[in-house]
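Example record used in the benchmark description.
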Amino acid sequence: MDESTQKTIKYGFGKRLRELRHSKGLSQEGLALACELDRTYIGGAERGERNVSLVNIHKIANALDIPPYELLKGGQARHATSRNSGTPVAVIRSPTQRIGDAPAALRPPQTEHKAAQSWLPQMALRLFGIKF
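Model output (structure tokens):
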């Protein structure tokens, strides 16, 4: 994955984190205290400067009282380009949209769980041990 794609993913995650933090009425310091992380770590994550680990995603989600997959939703539309020519090849609405293009054999089975509307949230739920 090239550096600009990584920056786009980290920026989208940070933007979503900031939105959720504001919706809960928390400051960066308040969130950092609640999830036992440093305030500067939260600020760096919101600015897209940090590659946040799965463990820290789980800590942040618990502090915000949301399921971890909520932090991965959203993102701004961006154009993907061919690695060779640089010409646009698709419009991607979020960094995770391409995952839905996986062959059906690789996707988890569909469930009736209301929170699991795509297979990425299902994988996040399974990753963090939530049964549905």
